[in-house]
Amino acid sequence: MLEIKDISKRFGDHLALSNISVVFEPRKIHALLGPNGAGKTTLIRLINQILEPDSGSIYFNGRFLDRKMLSNIGYLPEERGMYTNMRVEDFLFFLAELRGLEKKTARQQIDYWLNKFDIQSWRTKRIEELSKGMAQKIQFIATVFHDPELLILDEPFSGFDPTNVQLMRGVLRELKESGKTIILSTHNMNNAETISDHITLIHQGNIVLDSDYASLKKRFSQDVYTVQFQGNMMGFANALWVNYDLLESKQIGENQFIAKVKLLNDSSINQLITELMEQVQFEGVWPDSPSMEDIFIQLTQTVTA
Amino acid sequence: MKTWTIAKREFKDRLKSRFFISMAFIGPAMIILGLYTLFSLSGSDKQQLNILVSDPANIMNKLMLGKQGQIKYTFIERYVERDEFAYGSDFQKYDALLEINEKIISNHFAFLFQREIINPSLVTRIHRDTEKRLEMLKAGEFTQLNLETFRRVMHPIKLDVRDAYRPETKNNYYMAGYTGFFFGLLILLFVITFGMSILRSSSDEKSNRVAEVMLSIVQPRDLLLGKIIGIGLSAILQTTLWTLVVAFGLFVLRSTVFPDMFSANNLVETDGLILNNSWVNLIYSQINFGVMLPWFLLIFVLSYLFYGSIFAALGAAQGSQSDGQKFLIPILLIFIIALFSGYFTIENPQSSVVDALLLIPFTAPMVLMVKIAIGIQDEGVWTFFLSLLIMVLSALFFMRFAGRVYKSALLTNGYRLNWRKLLRWGMRAK
To answer: Which of B178, B188, B275, B411 is the residue whose CA sits 20 to 30 A from B221?
Structure first.
């Protein structure tokens, strides 16, 4: 779908991107993560031809990316600006005309999306009258109404309340189902975790992680499980004499505890449960996978070090 | 196509602004009001003066006419003290006291005591009237000529200044020059007003971050061109509205307020000079609008593209509002120099400095308009067209320059703009 090949970009003395290569596969939601100043926005601007790379090339559907192909890309920048004195409808038609949409198609698309977000009544409102969240929806419509194959969304959830975040997640999933490829640049690890299929992490102008979500979870899994039980803590700890490491424990009620256990020496969760079964009464056992945030911090700290 | 879409938006945006609508009417209304004032001052509503002539020796009486145009002389055959004139109730109806002493023929000295400042041209008139009558008196005393013959002999010469190559044109050089200056001033006024619109529009797009959305759809040069064309079209519309409203206003003035100005009676010639309604004559008869307006439009478009590109570059390049103000001062200085160059051209049309000013795109619009108004001599034709060529090339250069600044600066924030940075952005190819 989109292939970034050996791209470098320098601004004066600052190397924003250092010879990076990454492939964004079709019909997936890709999370593009990285701390501030990592090079995410530079990469996005290069894809959108707003900037030109110092070296390297970008391919879209196997062909060298040029400006004509931008009609197949929808871009929602993080810094979302609009002509505040325009009416919502006029602004959308203006961008549709710039995108080359015929008036009839533009009207159909605008009607469709305004209905989808249930905001038909905003048509004649001036943009300056809109709240941040409302403006965000209008911007999103302007990003998708020309039916692009690739969507690049920079912090698409910022400014939304939890209900609207939920709504947007649903819309993004629908778009993916309909065959769109989505690149999601965000700081919000929870959102990245919830809807992404693939994670790309940029740090200091380099790609430090490029993996699908399932593999990533497995790779960073540390065989740690959380166990909640009724019984005696001493008995629980004694049962973990070999092959297990009790990382932490906490009493949460009368004879009720929660503990984190790490499996050692290729031991399995089944073995752990068997050994503990005689000592305590289980209330729950679940894997303690690292969150995206943990992975993010771990990776960025490692690279920085 | 995209450029045109952006231009349409900018054009509609200007049209909807209150400033545009008010400018379309207030501007021409002020011009009409100014012309009305000029017509009135040069027409029938001139200051009327009552002069008391204190002439104890009865030297001037019978020789000076009682009423000379705007001046009415009343003679009194005794001395009137200054205090008596200033505070005496009998003399309050007089505006000034002309004191003719008994020895005026030998000492050539007289006083004029004025209550309020009298227009210098009227003082000159009083001076001339007094002098003329004294000459007549001397003629009677020292020559054999009678009064009629003396008046005929002393009639002043009318000096008619004409173009050696076009003697049929009876154009007043200074008035033509100032007409060109006025057209140049209009160009600068429109260019600075609409140039500021370009600057504001560019810096707004940058500060409210809509630039990134736009640049992901269109190229920087499309955005720049669309902005310049859209705002330029609104400037042309504004100019057209001004022209139409002023033309209509002049027509209304001619047919309603000053219908008698065009009668032969009103074009009074005194001492060989047309004193009345010279402005009316200039506006309605002497300005060749058929020549001036097309040149005005062409030079306006070139100046607008030239200055507009510079304003666009500044708008895109500024890191903060104070940056814009810092760079506006030199630009305003350039405008003042351009205005002065127009005045200099009127005073020294054949100077080599004027030829140099013609070749500088900042001053060329004003100098060109003055040159066109006063007439271009054959030997100056090549300089004239070279000046136009330089304006075209400068406009193209600065449009390219602004395009590069747009590309580099529109998405860059958090810096203080300086000339080096601006030049670096504008000159670099990538």
So the answer is: B188
